[in-house]
Amino acid sequence: MVSKRKLLKAETSGENSNADPPSRCSETKKSRISAPDRVETEGIFEELIRTSGIVLKVGEGQNEIAVDQMTFQKKLCLALEKHPAYPGVVKQFISGLESHIKDRNQFKNCLLPCSPIQTEGSRSENMCFPAVITLLLEKIPEFFFDIVGTFGTDFPRLIINQFKWLDKFLDSQDLVKKLMQLVSVSPVPIQHDIITSLPEILEDSQQSEVARELSCLLKQGRRLTVPILDALSRLDLDAGLLAEVRQSAMTIVPSVKLEDLPVVVKFILHNVKAADAVEVISDLRKNLDLSSCDLPLKILSSQKKVKSQVQASSSMSQVTTSQNCVKLLFDVIKLAVRFQKEVSEAWIKAIENSTSVSDHKVLDLMVLLLIHSTNTKYGKQAEKLLKSKIRLGCMPEQLMQNAFQNHSLVSVIKDFFPSILAVAQTFLHSGHPAVVSFGSCMYKQAFAAFDSYCQQEVVTALVTHVCSGNETELDISLDVLTDLVVLHTALLMRYATFVKTILDSTQKLHPCQIRKLFYILSTLAFSQRQEGSYIQDDMHMVIRKWLSSTVPNHKQMGIIGAVTMIGSVALKRNEGDGSSLERPELNSERDEQLSNLLDLVGICCEQTPEVLALYYDEFANLIEKQKGNLDLQLLDKFGKSLVEDFPSDFVVDLGPTVDGSFLFPVKSLYNLDEDETQGAIAINLLPLVSQSDLGRVTGGMSSQSKRVVSPLCLSPCFRLLRFYTAEQNSGSLEEIDALLGCPLYLTNLEVEGKLDSLSKQEREFLCSLLFYALNWFREVSRALSQMDVHHNGEMYGTSRSPTPGYVPPPATFDSEALEAVSSTNAVGPVRKKNGKKKKTDGSKASSADRSQADDSSEGNQPDTELSELEKTTAEREAENPLTKLQNYRPYFRELDLEVFTVLHCGLLTKSVLDTEMHTEFCEVVQLGPTELSFLLDDLCWKLEHVLTPSSTRRVPFLKERSYRDIGFSHLCQRSPKEVATCVVKLLKPLCNHTEKMHSYFQAVIQNQGAEDEPGVNIQEHMLMSSCYQQLLLTFRSLFAWNGFSQPENTDLLRSALQVLAERLKPGETEFLLLEDLISESFHYVLNFQQSVPSFYCAFILTQLLITIAEKPMAGWKKEKIASLAKQFLCQSWVRPSGDREKGNQFNSALHTLLCVYLEHTDNILKAIEEISSVGVPELINSAKDGCSSTYPTLTRQTFLIFFRVMMAQLESSVKSIPAGKPSDSSEVQLEKLLRWNIAVRNFHILINLVKVRLLLLFWFYLQYGRLFVEAFLKLAMPLLDYSFKKHRDDVQSLLKTLQLSTRQLHHMCGHSKIHQDIGLTNHVPLLKKSLEQFVYRVKAMLAFNHCQEAFWLGVLKNRDLQGEEILSQASGDKGSDEEDSAESPAEVPPLGRLGSNSLHRRGGGG
């Protein structure tokens, strides 16, 4: 083949002309022959070239050469040197060359290879060439089955190589044709050699044709993928053919072999152009599935058990090959991301455009991490996109776990470790729970998958988070370390020194975090016999220091640490292969240390009841958490001394009288064993409370050596006794059976109406006595597996008027609670405006997810409304007392989850036996609304605390975040899965109660129209409404748990859905698919829509339906949710008292429900138009306190909510309209224009509402107006560019409608100037900038369509909201007023030399 050296260099370098000229031009005959395609006139340049052996052609033909290359060079140099005008002739030669190449075709011919001229001599010289080539090609089939011959020579490859170096072919087209025929019949190795040699054999004119043939060959089989793409990458292809070939390569991506995949992806990425980069990358994402290289660790572990060595080595070879191929693949992507700007941008855009959860793959996560680690410019953008996808739920943790568990990807991910560490650290700073959880999962997976260096970095980062002081980081980091110490104890032991440094920052930790820290350290210290000894020493030292401190918090931290250490020592140990659960013998030194530690704890506790109570609670929590895993011998050694004093301290024989003088007469109450007279016992509560009060009065007069017995320790000590007894007796409580039903020494509680006559001391004594009694019942309730809620209600009613400033006795004893006591009671109980006790966290807008216990009326209602209600309601005094004491909730003992088994019973039956053990009579105690509300309220708080991620969890009792675990210390010992499992078991009774509520409110609705029916009992209605609301909240909290998305919890989710589906199809749900169970559960919950008593209940019901439907969301479910939301919006919500519902909670629910309606409706623009064109005019024409007849929830008070939601959804919806493309058909353009016309019309209606003054916060108009104009510029203007010629009238109408809105926005800018409103002025510059960009963008659109004459500028005066001219411009141009009245689509702020006036453009097109 003619060598491709550049003629330009040859002709300009004189004697150095042998430096790569690409064109060898043909030599002409000495006598010039005039031809139509040859140069007609000759100068010095043409003459010298011709005489040297080249014929210069014009047009498309190639220059011709008839001599050897070296001969041409020698002739040209000799002609220049011997020319009479030398050396001046050189300048003339260069000048002639410059003139010659001014013509583009001639310049192209000079750069292309020259074709040989067929002269007489050359024809005879090359006569043998075709015969030789044919002979060689015919020899190739001889080696089809003996490619490497006897002497080890690859003859086919040698033959093919000869064709690469031929100077000239007589018929190259024929040679290529024969080679392609040979490809179709040759073995793969020969095909490979032929295809890879084609780029050196082909002439430029043949490249396109051969590229198409190779593209077809690429689709036919996968064996030649690599050589074909290698050849194609070296061919010079035009843009259209390149796109065609690239599409061929794209089609084989899903099925190509793993070892060929890097080559295919490299070809696709290296041929990406900026114009179509997003489309190409999107297709590549869809087709590139890393499941083809999946080799999870579980498969590898099974391969290790292969008995055959040959099979084992083959498996390992397969693993290595897979790893290498995947690494090569990501190296290809990495190079493209680093050096091709359009690839990074396109990949980020392609991932961003994916909206469905199923569209996201492991590849997306890998690529985002790759971009973050490789491309500094787009690293932050990739991190931001990843965070956004996590928030939306598109990238669950399971996706990342799949990446780390894929053995072939681990080596690739390891290269991204710095980015993983940086991203995880950033995510832990996030306020979104899903992002925080994802970051913690990144830490855990990196620790498990990477080497020791990476593990050390992970531990160091986690320790840094713990010591940072940030609450969220601290909690989640300790949780990660806890998981690591459980799953990878031996690995984490190597880095115990780093973990131990957290002991230096314990002043920032609260008790729950101290428990986690000491659990981690204790596990490390006692899991390895010798390695953990130095950790044990440090822990002993720190705990002793804390226990010896006089600071209460330090003592409590010491007790928590000591009990945690005891728990680690007392655990049964797995020995050897784990078949035995025998504890290794403790050495004497450790025994002595622990004994001394326990002695020190006892000394610290005996004089301080609060500290002793904490010791009891911690030990009880330890036994409950490690149930069945504790060494009974050690448990007896450590715990027996703690519980053996309970009978002597708190239990006395039951007698008719009690010795002593007390403030109130002693009376035994609540005896469940009244028939047992002999050996009866009682809890000596009232005398102990009196003794405790007396001790506080006398101060330090008591002997310091005597152990203090306080009623504070009654409940904690009984809790420990109960767990200790159950653990020692395999769950049996027979030994303490007498305590479960024994009475309490209290006093007569029928003091209603007598409280005012009591002194302050007597009232406080009585309140304290009741708190102790209530807490005793709450502890006994689990042991009884039932609750005498009736007794609780009596005592709640008695204590609803405590003395102002009264501080109840504490029920929880960690440092949080003690601090909370002082902070809560410094101001005394706070009353809500409706007269009920309020939880001190208030009703924040961010935490409006659930109401207060019976909050069917709003907290921000005027005082007069409910005070009038109290006056007119005779039964007000009998109102549910459980809601009266919300501020005192931290002072009640925590209910265990087992207590809620009472929900299984619609009726509780109590059998009383006679002396012969026969049933004497049965007393039926119904679980009424008050008791149900009491239980459900507590259950709701528990579920919200455990199943809701910590970053979004409400603080239930106190404002301070650090106190959020008060009342949940026992619950925190359980995992979220354990809690969810317990609630799933309660679903059946919860469904029963929900159906009862449904029936009750249906009956209420039916009776409302009957004249002879009595009025609604307001108290009962509110209580039942509260129960209904709490039931729905319970369902929502359960099904919204993000743990259901994890594969290991799929069975639990199925069990929960099966309970709901069973209500509609009894006995038919066992074999239903998960999708069918979801549908049936959805229909079951949907049936409650007709009976919801309040708007907030309707809101929770809608959220519950969305939660169920999202697993996954089907089209019909979306329609049902939209229809239901609209139904609730079009319903009038009135309280039993006749007042319309309102308040913060109502507004928050309305905002969310309206968003749900607009997001789920099939035509959001039509829905917005209906509200704005129907509902808003009805509101404008209504009375001052009226509402829209179509949308009763639309009032003057809620208009701001409707406006904000509609504007935000309008902006969001127009962003979903695809931008215009040149390839769009006329029908597609018309459809997009129609959608934009509706959107602009809606925008115009909403913006012009400023004239009716429904919304006085004008900055909403400015803000959302700017956002809409910016969206129009970005998305609608490209559409107008390409549709203007075909749909001129539609485009002009669209612009004119938008102009009406932009003019109103301009008037608002003038309004802000007149009133000097800073809140408005801050929005004006950005808005005016957008309006200015709009004008010039329209001008650019007209210029693009060659209609510049349709655009002109005029002066637009600044006016106020009423259209009056602003006085500062009264001297403006008269003519401008006329222009202002003309039709025009946009205004802009002052520009250039036109001073303070605005530019104005008349509509284009006409």
Automatic annotation (TrEMBL):
GO terms for biological process: double-strand break repair involved in meiotic recombination; homologous chromosome pairing at meiosis; interstrand cross-link repair; mitotic intra-S DNA damage checkpoint signaling; response to gamma radiation. It is found in: Nucleus. Residues 26-37, 868-879 have a biased composition (Basic and acidic residues). Residues 830-839 have a biased composition (Basic residues). Keywords: Isopeptide bond, Nucleus, Ubl conjugation. GO terms for cellular component: condensed chromosome; cytosol; DNA repair complex; nuclear body; nucleolus. The keyword Cell wall biogenesis/degradation does not apply. Residues 1-37, 824-882, 1366-1406 are annotated as: Disordered. Pfam families: FancD2 (PF14631). One of its GO terms (molecular function) is DNA polymerase binding. Belongs to the Fanconi anemia protein FANCD2 family. PANTHER family: FANCONI ANEMIA GROUP D2 PROTEIN. This is FA complementation group D2. It comes from Strigops habroptila. The gene is FANCD2.
